[in-house]
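User: I'm designing a mutation panel for FHA domain-containing protein and want to avoid disrupting the core. Could you give me a predicted structure to guide residue selection? Please restate the sequence first so the numbering is unambiguous.

Assistant: Good idea. Sequence first, for numbering, then the predicted structure tokens:
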Amino acid sequence: MGSEDGDRRRRRDSRDRRSDRPYDRRRTSVSRDDDRRERDRRSRRHDDDGKDRRRRHHSRSRSPRPRHDRERSSRKDDASPSPPPKRRRRSYSQSKSPPPRRPRGPLPSQQDQFRQGDDAAPAEPVVEKQKPNFNATGLLAKEANTVAGTNTVLKYHEPPEARKPSSKEQWRMFVFKGKDMIDTIHLYSRSCWLMGRDQAIVDFQLEHPSISKQHAVVQFRHITKTNEYGDKLSKVKPYLIDLDSANGTRLNGEKVGGSRYIELRDGDVVGFGDSEREYVMMLPK
């Protein structure tokens, strides 16, 4: 007990001593600064807590709305009384006119381009040009085969190899009626002999009614042949050609084909149409 009373007494003396000390101004200012710092720290903590609360509240407010809320808002928008504005179509009259189409036809003439106003004459209709035709028309041969002074067209014209026979080979054609010789044709005098019923154009007239106006031709041709030894032999020989006559031409009793050359030889007998006259080829030695 005595020790406890002594301790109390010592504590009380020290407290009295502390109270009797003079006022330390420096210590009070330090304690005030500490108090101010503590108040600033608390206010700063309070401000940080408020900012955290506002941030959390803002993040909650920006979170996506539930699905049923969005559906309600979309229904409200659909049920709005004002319809969306219609898109007006632009007409060519209000907007700029479309570019003119380029014509596919030929360009107008230069004279029409220089004419102006109402005096310009209407464009003439376009006439298509005739395309070139390179096929054989026979017009040139028709003009070449026309008999001078008449409108009669010859059925035959001489080929390039036509030649007059030499004077050494005096070909003749003897005309027989039955057993009697009534006429002689000197074939060597010319290169071509046209025979028929038309007296105006033929070289030798055949009077039988079954004979055509231009019936047949005896033509001398220069032909070159190669023999078995390779030698070329050229000679002028007579040929017979029927001009597609109505009753045909006979050679040695057989009818010949039309429009083709057949060689005539010494002693051949030719007949024309239904005539009984015979025309015998002869080459005198």
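For picking mutation sites, this is relevant: The longest helix spans residues 25-61. The first strand starts at residue 172 and ends at 177.
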